[in-house]
Design goal:
6-stranded antiparallel beta sheet
Length: 131
């Protein structure tokens, strides 16, 4: 996927979309040096960026041509990741109305097989979508 935004190109240029169904997207991203903070772990900005991106994509997966303007975004940092870890990002459009769309996003370390890895961060993202 080739993101249009400069910040998305910098941070998410290597993101892989694993699946997309109506209202739900799943993607993977390998943590690279550009994603790290001064302590060598995943920078909070990357989690916030992923929440912004995945929320918009979840809305788009419902059939919306325009994914709207952000009105509210929250990020909760639960744990962290390090260089080389794979992250799995799940974005869900929980409600897409006439004016607002609400999404929830979970970022986890990718697990082995059917096992899910630990949660790295969670978030919500609300967008104004009235066309």
């Amino acid at each position: 996927m080739k993101p249009n935004s400069t910040i998305y190109r910098l941070l998410l240029g290597d993101i892989e979309i694993v699946s997309a169904t109506k209202g739900v997207i799943v993607a993977r991203l390998r943590v690279q040096p550009v994603h790290l903070n001064s302590k060598g772990t995943l920078h909070g900005t990357v989690s916030a960026c992923l929440i912004d991106w995945a929320g918009g994509l979840a809305i788009a997966s419902t059939g919306m041509d325009n994914t709207g303007l952000s009105t509210d975004i929250h990020t909760t940092f639960v744990s962290t990741a390090k260089h080389g870890d794979w992250l799995e990002i799940e974005g869900r459009a929980t409600k897409v109305g006439g004016s607002l769309a609400f999404t929830t996003i979970e970022i986890r370390k990718a697990g082995e097989g059917a096992n899910q890895g630990p949660v790295v961060s969670t978030g919500t993202h609300t967008k104004y979508v009235k066309q």
